[in-house]
Amino acid sequence: MTALLSVNDLSVRFGGVRAVDGVSFDVEQGEVFTLIGPNGAGKTTVFNLISRLYTPSAGRIVFAGAPLLDRAPHEIAGLGIARTFQNIELFENATVLQNLLIGRHTHRRTGLASELFFTAKARAAEVAAREAVERVIELLELQHHRDAVVASLPYGARKVVELARALCTEPKLILLDEPSSGLNVEESDDMAFWIDDMRRELGITVLMVEHDMTLVSKVSDRVLAMNHGQMLALGSPAEVQRHPGVVEAYLGEPA
Amino acid sequence: MRFLFKTSYLQDIRLVKHGGQAFWYGALVLALLAAPWLASEYWLAQLTFVLIYGVVGLGLMLLSGFTGLFSLGHAAFLGVGAYTEAVLAGAGWPFPASFAAAALVAAATGVVVGLPALRVRGIYLAIATLAFAFIVVEVFARWESVTGGNAGKQVQALRAFGWRADADVPFYFVCLAVAMLATLAILNLLRSPTGRAFVAIRDSEVSAQSLGIHLARTKTLSFAISAALAGLGGALYAHKLKFLSPDQFDILQSIDLLLMIVIGGIGSVHGAFLGAIFLITMPQAIAIAKDVLPPALGQAPGLQGTVYGLVLIGFVLFEPLGLYGRWLKLRTYLQIFPFYRRGMFRRQKSFLKSDRLR
Amino acid sequence: MQALQIVISGVAQGCIYGLIALGLVMIYKTTETVSFAHGELMMLGAFAGFALMVLLGWPFWLAVVATVVVLALFGIALERVAIRPILGQPAFSLVMLTIGIGYVARGLVTMVPAIGTETHALPVPYKDQTWSVGGLVLNVEQMVVIAATAVLSALLYAMFRYSKVGIAMQASSQNQLAAYYMGIPVQRLNGLVWGLAAAVAAIAGVLLAPITFVYANMGFIGLKAMPAAVVGGFGSLPGAIVGGIVIGVVEALSGFYLPEGFKDIAPYVVVLLMLVVRPNGLFGERLRKKV
Fold first, then answer.
1. Hey, what domains does chain B have and what are their CATH numbers?
2. How far off is chain A from B254, nearest CA to CA, in Å?
3. Which terminus of chain C is less hemmed in, N or C, by CB atoms within 10 Å?
4. Pairwise CB contact (< 8 Å): A102 & B188
5. Partners of residue C289 in chain A, C-beta under 8 Å
6. Residue C33's CB: how many other CB atoms inside 10 A?
7. Chain B residues within 8 A of A115 when measuring between CB atoms
8. Structurally, how many domains does chain A consist of?
9. For A186-226, what is each residue's pLDDT tens digit?
10. Are residues A58 and A103 in the same domain?
11. Which residues in chain C touch residue B258, judged by CB atoms under 8 angstroms apart?
12. Per-residue pLDDT in tens (0 to 9) along chain B, 358 residues
């Protein structure tokens, strides 16, 4: 079975620093694949390369059979890749509902003319978009935040809105960048459930960066450990956690 | 207190959300339609100016308020529209055609001016728009065969298929129609994907891109629509003033337009018109105050500039949401009386974070 | 020979732009505010010099020093009263605030009876003098401008190089809250920078006054300092001076060699070209958000 996402020998340099150095992995359809590693290992950089915010100096990325590197950043969502950001990139001055509606942008069917005059077609498209957004709101239990301006929401709620917005694009692959950072135990549990829901009910493949090992062990199928931009270990969560190189990277060498 | 019981998504999507809004906006429309018979000639002329500046303000509000692209040279588009209209009206074009042409030429200029926006942001973009504005005004002054240069250009009356609108009342209705159509168009735009894309670009370009928004195309579109509205306003402006000269579109006019949207309330459609009302009535208020103040103060030539500056500073410091914001607070107070709390609209104390890293 | 003469004259004018741009860049580096009031600060400096020299009859050097001190204090007061309260708000609001301040300054000066609406000459000791060097006839007023700019730049360079103020400024502008945490006295720093910028503008005003005379709308010359700052790269202090000189020279040359009207728009054409070719200016740096 061909993988949904295939990363091959990916490298990028910023000045003299090799942020990502020869990383290769495949993500199969329907699996939850996690990148772990200490800070600065290059995990978010891999995400930025897949989102085409950076251009690699070497390597290939293939998504759903087509090469990704000739695409511009704004075409990624249309191909079915959504992402969340480590430091939350929501539209602060808009309401949660507006943020989610913007997430429906790739499913837009109306042109400028029908929007200016708000024809029946535009009206129907708006109602359809709202219905799709409401389904996501129900899934992530955001009803009471619907009309809140994002800037007024607490951190945990914003993380959920960021996830919701990514889901509104109806992606095939979702890139989650540290979904549980800053969340308390209860919220992390909810996040684990949602990641599982995404895979099982919505059929979305999940590629995530995560530090919380409990969450990683609970939901991941396979894990890739990285350090200094290079691959350390690739396998099931248990295998990777036992790998001596991984232990050393996180805990240091024995004295 | 009003409780809205929502039964369908259309209620949220509709422009007129409930009976109360329908009543008040309906009353406003009726009042505007009846204005020629209710208001004196002088006030009708002022109202016409408010409508014209409101249309231009809508354009600038779209660009700077909703898309976050700061434009310091918007008067240039006003001028492009005005001169295009003057030339075409002089050549005998009927006004629907010449208006459309003025809007299109202004939109094309907007696209050109918007090109730097695709590469640079923030203050650099503002200075680029300023630079373009100076160049455009200089072109007005030098291209004498078309614009009449510094000597100015007469503008023919508004005309279409035999109907002339050079009297005040028919011209007022033309302005009213244009203003209403422009407002409806902008409101429609804002509740549809394109409008939301503009807001997305304002707040976070990176995530806008990751959601599929084509940055360059959307920014260019924003410039084009904004310039087209300014051009349309300029066409009306040309007929109102009946005489154009390049210095009517200099940097002071651009700053007046910015003043208008800041004081009206950035980020709201109402703000464009409230700001226009402010811009037109302020000179009247100053003129009235001149009689009250001691002569040293009242007759001084710098009074208008000082007052404008003080009002602008006052609004930025104390009422960043502008006149519309103040009205919202008042309305909330009345709506939820006596439960209004002073801190409801308070902005959190914010610390400076670099805009370059946005 | 004539070309050289024009270039020198352009350099002098460019130094004025550069000095104002210097103040702009200093303020931008510290608070990320673009001050559109800087031209008006220069105008106030010129008027203060005029008031001291002509109305009060003070000797030249005393008047200059006093002008600088007065404007510096004014800059500090301005920062305290108007800028500090809204420092966290979007850049747009801050720019509008400075535009408002400019309006008020211009309006208030115009309102001063008899003096505000007239054009005045500033009686500097080197007024209308010329030197003959080689085949060149050099205008002493312009030479003074160039010399003063050089001295001022050297002083400021030394100050920023050998003290921590430069780094503190950068820290404060990139993340004010973190700067507070690091023990940087942010508010004092902001006040200092505004005072310094105002003082530089005052010197520019006094230097410019013999050449263009003192009048209320002098501040509009400050608008050309914006392109100067952009050309130099908005975050770079030496860039401001260099940018100013580039603009001044281009302006002078286009005034002489190109048809009428090009002189006025020359700075703006240059800035547009610069934004196309090198958006971050000659010495600017490309900052990018890391997500």
1. 38-342 (1.10.3470)
2. 26
3. N
4. no
5. none
6. 25
7. 188-189, 192-195
8. 2
9. 888 999 999 998 889 889 999 999 988 888 988 999 999 99
10. no
11. 96, 99
12. 567 788 888 888 888 777 778 888 889 999 988 888 888 888 899 999 999 999 999 999 999 989 988 899 999 999 999 999 998 888 888 888 899 999 999 999 999 988 887 888 778 888 899 999 999 998 888 888 877 777 778 777 777 766 777 778 888 999 999 999 999 999 999 999 999 999 999 988 889 999 999 999 999 999 999 999 999 999 999 988 888 888 889 899 999 999 999 999 888 899 999 999 999 998 888 888 877 777 766 666 778 888 889 999 999 888 888 899 888 888 888 877 777 777 666 665 556 555 554 4
DSSP string, B193-243: HHHHHHHHHHH-HHHHHHTT--HHHHHHHHHHHHHHHHHHHHHHHHHHHSE
Report yes or no: C227 at the B interface, CB cutoff 8 Å: yes
Tell me whether residue A204 is in a domain: yes
ipTM of the complex: 0.89
Q: What angle do CA C25, C26, C28 make, to 5 degrees?
A: 60
pTM of the model: 0.90
* Partner C contacted by A44 (CB < 8 A): yes
Length of chain C equals 291
Q: Is B211 exposed, middle or buried (0-12, 13-18, 19+ CB in 10 A)?
A: buried
- CB-nearest partner of B203 from A73, A92, A106: A92
Residue A175 sits at φ, ψ, to 5 deg, of -100, 110
Judgement on whether residues A139 and A13 belong to the same structural domain of the protein: no
Answer whether A85 touches C (CB < 8 Å): yes
Asked if residue A101 and residue A73 are part of one domain, the reply reads no
Minimal Cα distance from C177: which residue of B?
Answer: B351
The CATH number linked to A65 is 3.40.50.300
Both tokens of residue A237? Answer: 């969560």
* Residue B203 to residue A105, Cβ atoms within 8 A: no
> Which 8-state DSSP code applies to residue A75?
G
The reply to whether A124 and A14 lie within a common domain is no
Considering only CB atoms, which chain B residues are within 8 Å of A154? none
Same domain, A242 and A208: yes
Domain that holds residue A9: 3-80+171-251
Same domain, A74 and A91: no
Alpha carbon distance A50, A60 (integer Å): 10
